Amino acid sequence: MLIYEDISDIISKLAWNELVGQIEGDFIDCKRQIYDLSLDAQKVELAKDATSFANASGGFIIIGIETQKSQTHFSDEIVALNPFEVANIFDPNQHYSILNAWVYPKLENVRIEWRPEREGANRGFGIIVVPPQPDTKRPFLISKTILSSGKRVDILVGYAERKRDTSEPATLVELHAFLRDGMNFQRNISNQLAEIASRLPAGREAPHLPAEEITERVKKNLEATGLDKRKYFVLAAYPSEPTELPSLFNSSTNSITRILEQPPTIRDGAFALTTLDTAKIIDGDFRRVRNGSRKVVDLYPDGVLIFGCAADEAFLAWGIRDYEERPKLNTVALIEATYHFCLLYSEVLKRLSPKPKQIHFRFQLGNMHSSNGKPPVFIVPYGHNTAAQMFDDPAYPAPKDSAAKDIIISATDFDPGTVAYLILEQIYRWFGIESDFTIPYSEEIDGKRAISAARIQAI
């Protein structure tokens, strides 16, 4: 994944072909066509894209680059250059004017220009450079006065932040939470610490968790982002015996909170549990990170980890063309997300005290059957770029609208790849795939099948 310096170097050298095949990420947003700045909707889009980089670590908007969803990376892939002539099309002054009018506070050192595809060429690309902004000026807001009459002034306000390949605006609920938490920061922290202290007195023994409690927590996880009303996939892990995660409400450098915010990942653009969110304490009970309505991760002090994600084009069916007509799960996404969940739980397990003997793992799939006559969600169990995937043959449709299955794993010598394989084996079996089928991107180690990080990295 390209970093800020890489992109700056490519632009300065006019080495545009080096972008083709790369994936969008934290520092680059590509547009096939210019913004139509005669429309307010496009003015908002420009302001959103620019402020999303300003609220993160800076970045580049490049106009004249075509992208498409990648089936092997959780990002859009740059597939073609689409340069255009500068004359009367791309006006930097108009872009500056709109950013000045629609963004508060004013962005510092933004550079907007047209660069040729090669020296002397009359075609090229529009470039908007948003350098890293001072922390003291954040957040940058999208703001527009829509009515100013006498004593009344009405202003629209929005917030966006770059997260991997998206510049997703905050929802009304999230924006309210930002304002509420900022206005009541000291009181909130004091109340939360007091509640945590009352819930976790010295020597407290955590209760054993019945399956019904896990079901309720999964429900809470899905409802947090509206995933319960969409096609969804859930993975949950919880210990069989009472145990505790002492460092959950600690934000020090090596705490589990920091790992929740920056979970382990095996490659750039991975279908991982990364959200780029700050882990928030919810109701004094648990920590949560989320990535818009795509995915949400909850971690509890009794060692319960829950990951919910969209099982549609937003995540688990990422890169599937004509999804509405052929709602197929992306095999790479399913396998890699499951592996990364197990990888994160291995970090949780290291910090549990006392260490449990067994761990329950649960997968859930929901809303797999459409209510509008469309076919049910299906899976082609083979790897990417195989003939089976190209022709959807064989295709295994979801037998029911939902599924829930628990398996028990020994916590001794916990291996993420082996556990991921066992979970995926159960998922494949639910779709009707024979148990002797070998799941892609796996290898045999000491007589056991395991998902292989190296084989996923080689995709």
What does this structure look like?
Helix content is 28%, strand content 26%. The protein has 459 residues and is an alpha+beta fold. α2 crosses α3 (92-102) and α8 crosses α10 (416-430). The longest helix has 21 residues, at 331-351. The chain is globular, with a radius of gyration of 24 Å.
Output the structural class. alpha+beta
The main sheet orders its strands as 13-14-15-16-12-17-20
Distance between the termini: 15 Å
Major β-sheet profile? 7 strands, antiparallel
Q: Please tally the β strands and state the result.
A: 22
User: What is the number of helical segments per DSSP (H or I, 4+ residues)?
Assistant: 11
Shape, principal axes of CA atoms: globular
- Mean pLDDT comes to 87
Low-confidence stretches: 146-155, 183-187, 200-207
From the alpha carbons, calculate the radius of gyration and give it in angstroms. Answer: 24 Å
The helix content, as a percent range, equals 25-40%
Number of domains: 3
Pick out its properties.
Methyltransferase, Cobalt-precorrin-4 Transmethylase, Domain 2; 7-stranded antiparallel β-sheet; 28% helix; 3 domains; 5-stranded mixed β-sheet; alpha+beta; 459 residues
Short synopsis of the structure:
By secondary structure, the protein is of the alpha+beta class. It has helices spanning 4-13, 40-54, 92-102, 172-183, 185-199, 211-223, 256-261, 331-351, 387-391, 416-430, 453-457, and strands at residues 28-31, 59-63, 65-69, 76-81, 84-85, 103-104, 111-116, 123-130, 141-149, 152-163, 166-169, 232-239, 280-282, 286-291, 295-299, 305-310, 358-366, 378-379, 396-397, 403-410, 442-445, 448-451.
